[in-house]
Amino acid sequence: MTVKISSIGLKGLEGYRVQVQVHVTEGKDSMVIVGLPDTSVKESKERVLSSMQSLGCDVSEQKIVVNLSPSEQKKNGPFFDLAMGIGILKERGELKGNIPEESVFIGALALDGTVEKVEGMLPAIIAAKTLGFKRVYLPYDPLIPLEMLKGLECVVVQHIHEVVQHLSGNSFLPFHNPKETIDLVSERFEHPKDFLDIIGHKQAKHAFEIAAAGEHNLLMNGPPGCGKSMFAETFPSILPPLTQEAQLEVLSLYKLAKEKIISLKTPPYRNPHHSSSSISIIGGGTFPKPGEISLAHRGVLFLDEMAEFPKKTLDMLRQPLEAGKVTISRAQSTVTYPSSFILIAAMNPCPSGFLGSNTRYCTCNDKQIQSYKNRISGPIIDRMDILLFLQPVNLDQPSERISSETNRMRVEKARKRQYDRYQAQVTNAKISFEKLSKVSPLKESQLRMIRHVSSKQQWSNRVQIKIIRLARTISDLDGSQGITDESIWKAIALRCEHHSKEIVKAAKK
């Protein structure tokens, strides 16, 4: 007779069901694990056999064969130790109770039978819930918010003997002190910077509000000291808090990358240096790990001095910016990580930094300026929704000062309009263009206006679609049901940098 028990395997952040099949027969002492196990899975043999001896289960003169199905999928990590141990106990008659089909077992075994946590346990638990399992047996981990996993019974165990007792009908398990659990769903993290601290830049503030409302990418261009870095660092303060689903996704990625997370409710903010390698930004390695673009999932990726990043690294952003995920192929495995983020980038207009400045004189020649701009390819510029040119402002300049909290409330209202319109938690920048066109059709006069300006500016189809997406977000902020002509003019202006006024005038004619 063969015992079949369910566990979960991971392929990146995606989990899949692994059926652990255990068969025990008389023969020479041996335990064989098949089904494309890696080294960490093969070593389960010694851990599991030692655990059986600690429980008094005699496996001498027994041949144990364990098959991990599906056989064509490479297995990695000690996720399956607990399932193997329970399977052997069932086969040897040490476990009298039935093993429900809707139960799944996750955890590594110590030599004395203690059930230990494993790396990637949270995404495995989420996958178990997605796959339809009703109960999961797992070790205690204070960093996993079990209270957020509604609809899934989580049976926390410390020893394999506790699992046997529970399956045999003893529902009482040792109590785990909730005080040991880290509160990951505490109050929203208070940002140290506020839009009240930014003097002037009325147009730029509105552009960042639009970017936050629709999750649009934004590129800042301007001389040193004009406020590019301050805008980027303040931007997360106007983003809405993460939903529960997004919190679990972000926490799973950070646990896989072994990175510390500051606040679970606050959208992540990543700011890699321009000397960072492409692997650290995109993700990878022998056993692929999440990179900066995945750690910025559901949040912000800020590339300061964008033109200083290697051109090859910037071009690697093309697929993630379009698809919202990144696929990394290596000899060991191919994994896919989510990477849906808002890209905020900043660069100088030229090598000296003072081209177009109203305070300093630029000493660069035309060849140097063009060479500097060519460091960022056309396809990357095409994927930026908003282009801003900033100028330094005087500290004594009178300006309208609006707090981040006020901006965030407007952004949240605009986001709610989008969620209601699309019947899903998706924004204008991320929704498919087919769905956007269906629920927010343009008038023929509006289409003609966009085509007219695009022809003069030689804009690609992608840029024209981004204009429509921007216009939809601007209309949402204004509370308009449809896309207005005024919102289209504003969207065109946001795409044309400091030449916007002339372009808009031409469009209105």
Rg from Cα: 28 Å
Structural class: alpha/beta
Structure annotation, total helices: 20
Strand content: 15-25%
Largest sheet: 5 strands, parallel
Work out the number of β strands.
Answer: 18
Contiguous runs where pLDDT drops below 50 for at least 5 residues: 175-187, 498-509
Strand line-up across the major sheet = 11-14-17-10-18
Please bin the fraction of helical residues: 25-40%
Overall mean pLDDT: 88
Give an overview of the whole structure.
The chain has 509 residues and is α/β, with parallel strands linked by helices. Helix content is 37%, strand content 17%. A 5-stranded parallel β-sheet has the order 11-14-17-10-18. Strand 15 and strand 16 form a beta hairpin. Helix 6 (202-214) runs parallel beside helix 15 (404-422). The longest helix has 19 residues, at 404-422. The model is unreliable at 175-187 and 498-509 (pLDDT under 50).
